[in-house]
Specification:
six-stranded antiparallel sheet; Rossmann fold; 17 strands; alpha+beta; about 260 residues; 6 helices; Tumour Suppressor Smad4
C-alpha cells in the first residue's frame, strides 16, 4: 500500500514528532512524499487547512485516490481530524476502516480555455475593490438575473460552507446534487441566492464595458474576461474523494461555523 504525505517543510518536523511516519511503516505501508506521484498512491494524508486540501485535490486531477485531511490550519472544515487524533486516524485509514465521501466538482470554461475543476466554487469578480461590475446570469439558455455588484459565486454543496456562505448563501447538505448561485454584494434587492439542480449549465456574462473582471477556480488561477465574454459552469465528470472516520456534517457546522472553534 502506498500512502502519500503532503505537508509543508515548516510542519514536517512536527509530523515526525507525533510518530506518523512510524505508524505507517509499522503497518507495512510505503510513504510517498513526491506530489507528482500522488495519483499512483492508494491514499493521501494531507496536513494543513482547507487551502492545502484544495491543492491536493487539484494535483489528483480526478483520480480516485481518497484524501485524509488532518487539520493544522485555521478553520479546517474539509479536514477529517485534528492533529491530536492523527495517529488513530492513520491506523484506521491503512486498515481500511473508513467510509468514502464522494464530492462533486465544477467544470469551468471561458471561450476555448478551461480552468482547473473547482471543488468549492467559481468566482467572477471585479478585479478592483469598490468598483462594481455588471453581470448576467443564464441557466440553460434562460436569463435568471442581471445586476451590478462585486461579482457572483457559483458553488458546489461542498463550497456552500466557504466563500458562498460568507457572501450570504445557504448551507447545503453535501449529499445534494445541486449548484448554488450567490450574488456578491449586489446593488439590487431582487438579486438573491439560488439553489438549482446540478444538471443545469450556468453562464455568467460580463456586461461591463470598462471595468476589469476576473474569474477564479477555488481562489486559485485567475483569468481576465472581456466585455460580453462568458464563463460557462457545469458539473464536472470528475469527483473528489475523502476518507471519513467520525465525520458528521452538521456537527462540523456547529463546531466550526456556529461556535467559532478553531
Amino acid at each position: 500500500m502506498k500512502i502519500g504525505i503532503f505537508v509543508t517543510e515548516k510542519m514536517r518536523g512536527n509530523i515526525q514528532q507525533i510518530g506518523i511516519d512510524k505508524v505507517i511503516k509499522e503497518k507495512g505501508a510505503e510513504i510517498v512524499n513526491d506530489c507528482n506521484e500522488f495519483r499512483r498512491c492508494d491514499a493521501i494524508i494531507v496536513f494543513g487547512g482547507d487551502g492545502t486540501i484544495l491543492k491536493a485535490i487539484k494535483w489528483l486531477n480526478g483520480k480516485k485516490v481518497p484524501v485524509l485531511g488532518i487539520n493544522i490550519g485555521t478553520v479546517g472544515f474539509l479536514t477529517e481530524v485534528e492533529l491530536k487524533d492523527a495517529k488513530f486516524a492513520v491506523e484506521r485509514l491503512i486498515d481500511g476502516d473508513y467510509t468514502l465521501d464522494i464530492r462533486s466538482k465544477l467544470k469551468i470554461t471561458v471561450g476555448k480555455e478551461t480552468l482547473p475543476d473547482a471543488l468549492n466554487e467559481v468566482s467572477v469578480l471585479s478585479a478592483k475593490p469598490a468598483k462594481i461590475i455588471g453581470l448576467e446570469i443564464i441557466v440553460d439558455g434562460e436569463e435568471v438575473e442581471r445586476f451590478w455588484g462585486d461579482g457572483v459565486n457559483i458553488a458546489t454543496p461542498t463550497g456552500s460552507t466557504a466563500y458562498s456562505m460568507s457572501a450570504g448563501g445557504p448551507i447545503v447538505d453535501p449529499k445534494l446534487n445541486a449548484i448554488l448561485i450567490v450574488p456578491i454584494c449586489p446593488y439590487k434587492l431582487s438579486a438573491r441566492p439560488i439553489v438549482l439542480s446540478d444538471r443545469y449549465t450556468v453562464i455568467v456574462r460580463n456586461l461591463s464595458e470598462s471595468r476589469e473582471v476576473i474569474v477564479t477556480s477555488d481562489g486559485g488561477k485567475r483569468l481576465k474576461i472581456g466585455s460580453d465574454e462568458e464563463v460557462k459552469v457545469k458539473k464536472s465528470n470528475t469527483f473528489a474523494y475523502f476518507v471519513r472516520i467520525n465525520y458528521r456534517f452538521f456537527d462540523r457546522v456547529r463546531e466550526k461555523l456556529v461556535s467559532g472553534r478553531r
